Amino acid sequence: MPGLNFLSGNETADMKQNLTIALSKGRILKDTLPLLEAADIIPAEDIFSSRKLIFDTNHDNIKLVVIRATDVPTYVEHGGADMGVAGKDVLLEYGAKGLYEPLDLDIARCRLMVAGMKDAGEVEGRMTVATKFVNITKEFFARQGRQVDIIKLYGAMELAPIMGLADRIVDIVDTGNTLRANGLVPMEDICYVSSRLVVGKAALKMKHRQIQPIIEQLAAAVDARKERSEQI
Ligand code: PRT
Ligand code: MG
């Protein structure tokens, strides 16, 4: 292949480096795969019907790992994966310094909110807040100079005020149906959440030539998806 002669030895090696992308399983995954496909990264088998954790793709050197959303920043920060997809909620809670966030994928959109029982009045004295987002919650109230006691839960936060475990919860709200169904109402908005592409610092340095075109193709896929949804 005469074309390859234009590349230095280093660049040729660079193009062939293995690249691992960590995907959040669960609700983010089904919106992530079409974006990857638009960037010409296609899993070699159906991820949803497999029990595998690592998947080959249509590229010899690109692999996908499918893991819990909360583990994605850990893998990418420590180089277990070169890049990944995770919710902004998960990234804020993890607080990673070793991660670049080059692209908002505009999928799995929702909000982080403080919520409480519909008929709950003002809390007198110190407020108790149940959440799985302990760091985000701490920071949100600290910024306002409000002291709260935080109770860490791993799921079904809505139950905590009903059972008298907490005055408030901090949780993700999309349609608001889950809150309503449990007699809760949104009270304060913390932040907007969507899924982001993250890249590890080491990967960005060592595999820049491979990663940059993928970011660009994903960005184009995100724009195309936005345009389509605006036309509807
Ligand atoms: O379930 P598991 O503990 O394994 O992990 P996970 O809960 O982190 O995964 P998953 O797949 O449930 O969610 C992954 C990511 O999806 C989150 O980190 C968010 O970035 C994003 N996302 C978007 C959501 C929602 N929308 C959402 N609606 N995550 C959770 N919800 C839940 C929310 O917790 C609440 O119970 O849906 C309920 C609220 O929805 P509404 O429509 O009733 O308001
Ligand atoms: Mg869940």
TrEMBL record:
<dbReference type="Pfam" id="PF01634">
    <property type="entry name" value="HisG"/>
</dbReference>
<dbReference type="GO" id="GO:0005737">
    <property type="term" value="C:cytoplasm"/>
</dbReference>
<dbReference type="InterPro" id="IPR024893">
    <property type="entry name" value="ATP_PRibTrfase_HisG_short"/>
</dbReference>
<keyword id="KW-0328">Glycosyltransferase</keyword>
<dbReference type="InterPro" id="IPR018198">
    <property type="entry name" value="ATP_PRibTrfase_CS"/>
</dbReference>
<comment type="pathway">
    <text>Amino-acid biosynthesis; L-histidine biosynthesis; L-histidine from 5-phospho-alpha-D-ribose 1-diphosphate: step 1/9.</text>
</comment>
<dbReference type="GO" id="GO:0000105">
    <property type="term" value="P:L-histidine biosynthetic process"/>
</dbReference>
<keyword id="KW-0067">ATP-binding</keyword>
<protein>
    <recommendedName>
        <fullName>ATP phosphoribosyltransferase</fullName>
        <ecNumber>2.4.2.17</ecNumber>
    </recommendedName>
</protein>
<dbReference type="GO" id="GO:0003879">
    <property type="term" value="F:ATP phosphoribosyltransferase activity"/>
</dbReference>
<comment type="similarity">
    <text>Belongs to the ATP phosphoribosyltransferase family. Short subfamily.</text>
</comment>
<dbReference type="InterPro" id="IPR001348">
    <property type="entry name" value="ATP_PRibTrfase_HisG"/>
</dbReference>
<keyword id="KW-0368">Histidine biosynthesis</keyword>
<keyword id="KW-0028">Amino-acid biosynthesis</keyword>
<dbReference type="InterPro" id="IPR013820">
    <property type="entry name" value="ATP_PRibTrfase_cat"/>
</dbReference>
<dbReference type="GO" id="GO:0005524">
    <property type="term" value="F:ATP binding"/>
</dbReference>
<comment type="subunit">
    <text>Heteromultimer composed of HisG and HisZ subunits.</text>
</comment>
<keyword id="KW-0963">Cytoplasm</keyword>
<keyword id="KW-0808">Transferase</keyword>
<keyword id="KW-0547">Nucleotide-binding</keyword>
<feature type="domain" description="ATP phosphoribosyltransferase catalytic">
    <location>
        <begin position="68"/>
        <end position="219"/>
    </location>
</feature>
<comment type="function">
    <text>Catalyzes the condensation of ATP and 5-phosphoribose 1-diphosphate to form N'-(5'-phosphoribosyl)-ATP (PR-ATP). Has a crucial role in the pathway because the rate of histidine biosynthesis seems to be controlled primarily by regulation of HisG enzymatic activity.</text>
</comment>
